[in-house]
Specification:
Elements lengths: L12 H12 L3 H8 L3 H9 L8 H15 L3 H23 L4 H7 L5 H28 L4 E5 L4 E4 L2 E8 L4 E4 L2 E3 L6 E7 L3 E10 L5 E11 L13 E7 L3 E7 L5 E5 L4 E6 L2 E6 L5 E5 L2 E5 L7 E7 L4
Parallel strand pairs: 2-8
Antiparallel strand pairs: 1-3, 3-6, 4-5, 4-7, 7-8, 9-12, 9-14, 10-11, 10-13, 13-16, 14-15
């Protein structure tokens, strides 16, 4: 009987040998008689039980005999046997090592080509699912937005207000509909012209999926204070009210400068005949009233101002 030599797809050595023998319609006993290989060794090869086989030098000879008898490639059989034998030896070595609970569980696994293919497929599915979940969360996530200045209800002196804050990197930020630059850390800073009176600032941060957050800051624009003139010969009375911890320095007329520290809610009354010179560590938290005329906050929050003059008309 002559068979054409051909390659057959191998999954395991045992499956391959059983398939070839089955195609030839031969029993183990018949193959054993033709090849002089013991049936127990043939059975061990077909079942993948290499523990019943003699040393490798004999097994390799068996495989070459079988390849010649079956008219198949010996190299494919030898290579597959070596691969599977190495895997079994690794498993046996792991069994001989002291095992933790996890090691004992993993030691029961037999790594085969089929197992590796399934594992890689599952890993790809898991990575794909995680990526999709991350994309969905990115779409639904509202951007972060923090405004550093101005503070809500702050009195702003002058014709410009400085706006600064922080959002997530890559966000699109607008102030009252005007685009502003955001650096690669998500920080932004811009100046906006204002007029006297109340004004609302709408700061919006939006991501590429149009998920947006908007914060509204109310401010009150006020012209910068100018030296105040009071009626001739009338004494100066400067009332200071503090909305935070403030350090001040002041002098009345030609007297020596004095200092003082004040806390939230405290009030200080200064009097003079011709002039008062005032310095404050926090102009935004220092509210002034001169001879009954409300001036308001002397500047921006945490702004330090030096030598603010208040005069009478006789000066």
């Amino acid at each position: 009987m002559i068979f054409e030599k051909k390659k057959i797809q191998i999954e395991t050595l045992g499956e391959y040998l059983r398939e070839v023998r089955g195609n030839l319609q031969l029993s183990l006993e018949e193959v054993a008689k033709k090849t002089n290989i013991k049936p127990a060794f043939l059975k061990g090869l077909e079942q993948g039980d290499f523990s019943v086989l003699p040393p490798n030098v004999y097994v390799l000879g068996f495989l070459k005999q079988l390849a010649k008898f079956y008219n198949i490639e010996a190299g494919a059989l030898v290579d597959q046997y070596k691969k599977e034998r190495n895997i079994q030896q690794q498993v046996e070595n792991n069994h001989n090592r002291p095992k933790t609970w996890l090691g004992a569980k993993l030691g029961k696994l037999v790594i085969t080509p089929k197992y590796m293919s399934v594992s890689l497929g599952l890993m790809f599915v898991v990575i794909t699912v995680v990526y999709i979940i991350w994309q969905v969360l990115s779409i639904n996530k509202t951007p972060n937005l923090e405004i550093f200045e101005p503070q809500n209800n702050q009195v702003v002196l002058g014709t410009f207000v400085e706006i600064s804050g922080q959002t997530d990197p890559g966000m699109h930020v607008t102030i009252n509909g005007q685009d502003i630059f955001v650096d690669n850390q998500g920080k932004f800073k811009n100046q906006l012209g204002i007029s006297a009176g109340p004004k609302d600032l709408q700061i919006t941060a939006k991501n590429k999926f149009d998920k947006a957050i908007t914060k509204t800051i109310s401010i009150v624009g006020q012209d910068k204070p100018t030296p105040t003139v009071v009626p001739k010969d009338a004494p100066l009375k400067l009332k200071l009210e503090f909305s935070a911890d403030v350090n001040i320095m002041f002098s009345a007329d030609d007297s020596t400068a004095q200092t003082g520290s004040f806390h939230t809610g405290e009030v200080k009354l200064l009097t003079a005949q011709q002039k008062i010179i005032l310095s404050t560590s926090n102009a935004g938290a220092t509210k002034a009233t001169l001879n009954g005329q409300v001036i308001g906050a002397l500047g921006k929050a945490n702004e330090k101002l030096d030598n603010i003059p208040f005069y009478s008309s006789s000066n």
